[in-house]
Amino acid sequence: MTDGDVAAFTHLGSTVRGALSERGFSTPTAPQRLAIPPLAAGENTLVIAPTGSGKTETAMLPVFDHLVAGEGPPEGFGALYVTPLRALNRDMRERLEWWGEYLDLEVDVRHGDTTQYQRGKQAEDPPDVLVTTPETLQAMLTGERLREALQDVSHVVIDEVHELAASKRGAQLSIGLERLRDLAGGFQRIGLSATVGEPREVANFLSGGRACEIREIDVGSNVDVTVRRPEITEADEELSGKLVTDASTASHVRLIRDLVAEHESTLIFVNTRQTAEALGSRFTELDLPIGVHHGSLSKEARIDVEDRFKAGELDGLLCTSSMELGIDVGRVDHVVQYQSPRQVTRLLQRIGRAGHRQDAVSSGTIVTTRPDDTFEALAIARRARAGEVEPTAIHEGSLDVVANQVPAIVQSRGATHVSEAVETITRAYPFRNVAEETIREICSELHRNRIVWVDEDADRLETTGGTWQYVYANLSMIPDEETYEVHDIASSTRIGTLDERFVVNFAQPGEVFIQRGEMWRIAEIDDDEATVKVSPIEDPGGEVPSWIGQEIPVPAAVAGEVGEIRGVAEPQFRAGADAAAVGRELSGRYPADEYTVTDACEQLERQVDGDVAMPTADRLVLERQGRSVVLNASFGHKINETLGRVLSALLGQRAGSSIGLEIDPYRIELEVPTSIATSDVLEVLEDTDPDHVETIVELGLKRSDALAFRLAQVSAKFGALKRWQGSGRMSNERLLAALEDTPMYEEAVREVFHEDLDVDGARRVLERLQSGDLELVTERGRTPIGTGGRSSGKELLAPENADASVIETVKERLQNDRVILLCTHCTEWKVRTKVKRVRDQPECPECGSTRIASLNPWADEVVQAVRAEEKDEEQERMTERAFRAASLVQSHGKQAVIAMAARGVGPHNAARIISKLRENEDDFYRDILSKEREYARTQSFWD
Q1: Could you read off the pLDDT of 591-634 as tens digits, one per residue?
Q2: What residues form DSSP beta bridges with 364?
Q3: In the chain, what are the domains?
């Protein structure tokens, strides 16, 4: 042990050093060596290091030392430890209590589940160190006795500060810290963070722009990551039969199984909850000791798998981003990332969970599934080693956070001059540029909604009858969305939760989904109680539920490197090299075996062999087949989303109809009417003024559901939604019209731009294209790279062909669906009935005609249109559709009724389904299911 190793601990007093010896801390960890000196000197400090590298003790040892020194701890709270997840409190408490007991300091926890008795006790006799959440701190700032206790705070530790800095929860906390400063005066701020791209921005967020030391561990040099695409073996062919899946997917399961077997304890990260469930169901089928952990499982289920993994009962834990944060699950010696992690920061956070004790190397494997996935993972792995990390996107000036904090300030302080509230808010780093006039506008809106009272004569804010209720109903900036509890109908056990939009769009009795790695069939849905009752089924296939949750966006820099890899490979192929030769060359530069890189390069080889242009970082390739137009563009999710919206808006104007849009990090796919020529697409790209991008996108947003959804959430934080809604639900169109030209509308637009779009990036692409710096090539027909996107990136773990269980479910559902039967000949006979009660060849009992239209059960307006003597344009359209449906039923009988009962399947699609030649009835239902899924994917374009 060198003098440098122990020097960090010499900054601490004898009492704490004695505790270190007792605890077995002989050598400081890397973050402790770097950060304890400035922390012990009382400096604001941001500590950047991997999870589990001793960050908590790094922060708290100097805090404990300060609290036991001199006259000892104060009467009120001495230190706050703020953590974004309540689940972390359990771990923090266990780790910090020992120090508290040894040093005779009281450590306690306070969050939403803390009992009223315990809260009262904390207010009467505040603990020396309180572990809490951002939301609970908001509540504490309004309590009279708690505010007195908070006046003694000398240290605030913010754990996982990188996570908070990029969210509205963090923006709210930044103002909360300034409100605490108004109470306690200056206090030391300590931030604990995973690796970030712009540490100074996060330090400014933490300190409010004040002086702040940054102490960072170089994680990249301690990361050993390998990218692997498994080769399909004979064993995978056998395994595929057992798992009811294809051999390719079976090879993924087999490789992960083998990696888990090679290590003692493995975390398996996936990007979505549905992938966790689908993969978990495969491991359950193989009877492997691997648990599933994600946010939609019940707290009890999560704690159970955490404890079993920590105890060694489980060899692996399948998890989502919930496990990126510091939940203590014991030692992890390997991390598997299934499919590309999408971002360098995510890879570092996830791989950083492995082998970090005593500064060991963190080892991990990225298991990839297709060429895009492999090239993306290679780029991310290289960038991680080189320390090329994405910056943290701080929410600058969130107006709904200001609306949330103004009533909280007034509730806690009483009558407050507007200028004093403005001063507190704008000291917080994310709000440093918000104009006073904007804050006054927000105060006026809150006044109109009776949340606060604005006394204009005295320029003062005062409480109203609604202030207290508003503050306590809005402690959190996490949007309120209904969640349904899932219960096993036999045992009444709570399985987990499903989001409201999933239940509305997918769930109904008879449907099958996967949760907790097991298959469930829905028995009953109770909307009043927000519960879904289910029964388990023994079947490894099935539809996987789609939880709400945005796809992790791939940054422009990562997508650009994928384009660069293609650009390096292209001349080698054109010079006669094959995929194996190019793969060998690339595997020398990237952390992957030859097979993995060669397998991905075969797609590029096919592109060159087809004598079509290669899309690269400096070349766009526009291809077209029929109505489908694909712009191959390696710019990442946000730039492609922005360019896609510009294209769909301007082409939609020309066509006078909607344009279908799907994007991924490497493609912009448009579904255009036949009236749109390829030259129209080129013209938009070459002639659109780059400076008009923002305006075009905002105009396109005006009628979008995405903006309306955000606007509803934002206006709720202003207390405005109830006033505008009245007693009933409000249509998106009316909501957007009612709130235009308000701070709420401005904030909703800002949020969409911040979360989903990159206007500056899209503007630069158009500038490069129009200056000739970026090449644009057109190709007729689809190319290997153009078709290698979303269609091949679907949920690989769901079987391609619906299995018998799902087919049976579809049959049952359609047979039990209700339809309206209407005679289009006499128009007198109309009946509402279930599909299963319809005769093989329905006919009218009034006139004997077989021209019977089968309509949706809510299509009464269509019936009225058919019966109307004089029809307007819309009624003519409805009547024509009903006649087409009747013609189909007359020709094909009950088969047509079944097809048209499916979701999103009208007469046109029903005719296409019926006209196909099939060997068995199951294929008929498979085709219906395929059309339903296609409708679900594209519904937002046509509704």
Answers
A1: 999 999 999 999 999 999 989 999 999 999 999 988 889 999 99
A2: 225, 335
A3: 3-218 (3.40.50.300), 219-386+555-610 (3.40.50.300), 399-473 (1.10.10.10), 483-536 (no CATH), 612-780 (no CATH), 804-942 (no CATH)
